[in-house]
Design brief:
alpha/beta, TIM Barrel, 6-stranded parallel sheet, 3-stranded antiparallel sheet, about 15% strand
Length: about 325
Amino acid sequence: MSFIRTFHGDIDPKTLGVTYSHEHIVCRPPFWAERGEDDLLLDDKEKSKLDVLDFKQLGGQAIVDATAVDYGRDVMAVKEIAEETGITIIGTAGFNKSFLWGAKVPAHIKEVIGDYATFYEWIEAKSINELADFVIREVEEGLEGTNTPGGQVKFGTGYNRITPLEEKTIRAVARAHHETKAPVHSHTEAGTMALEQIEILKSEGVNLEYVSFGHMDRNPDPYYHEKVAQTGAFVSFDGIAKIKYAPESTRIHCIFELVKKGYEKQILISGDTARKTYYKHYDYGLGLENILGKWVPRFMEEADQSGFSGKQLVDRFFVENPARCFTFKS
């Protein structure tokens, strides 16, 4: 049986609909909170909800909230947004990258993982299988001790390196995937180390068709993208509108290169909208409406001009591919 696990139970993949594959809705990352980086704290449920409603008004139906335990999830606030807007939310079990782990563990997380001062101490103290058991519980029972389950498992690595503890979490997430059949998501810092992550996943026996690699547009290298796609994995262009990293022309060119090589069924699109200044209703940013409202029309126009079917590709990237990517397959 195949299903997608959401904040409100398991659903038929055919019902998922138009999906953003990597966003953050309400979160207070301890690492950034300790440093007074207010822009990185999405801490107002009602403002986040208004952006979600903008997304819905443009035909959006589902959002993958990629916030892991070490990035300050507010599970109940996001669940309430799902209930109040009718948008399907998929949550995330697992971990992010190691430089976040020096932050103090919030009290409510200590109730779940034990009395560790920092995330680093927790991950260092536990075995791979003990960390896997934590991830399994978050998928099968609920995130952070709630009854709201995670719908994917996640790991992350830093820029141009994989630390021993990051490798530990990759292996833990791989083992949790085998136990739960949950889809796997990778954070790659600036789009680096995906190929090295793949070797670790292979050593754990993971079928790469169940894995999505985030931030591939931060490393706009068509050769690199092809090497990832050749494994069967999903390639996520989840930095739409972040012009400080690359113009949209670069992202679209990289997408077209993958399509030309036959990988259109492995491409995901999203915004990783994780700052107040990215959100419309926090600080006048482009907001969650931007991709469907502005980027998609531009992409379709360029696709049609380049000899592709813009509509067909948009259906692939926002409906068909997410429905496959986020499915639990028994």
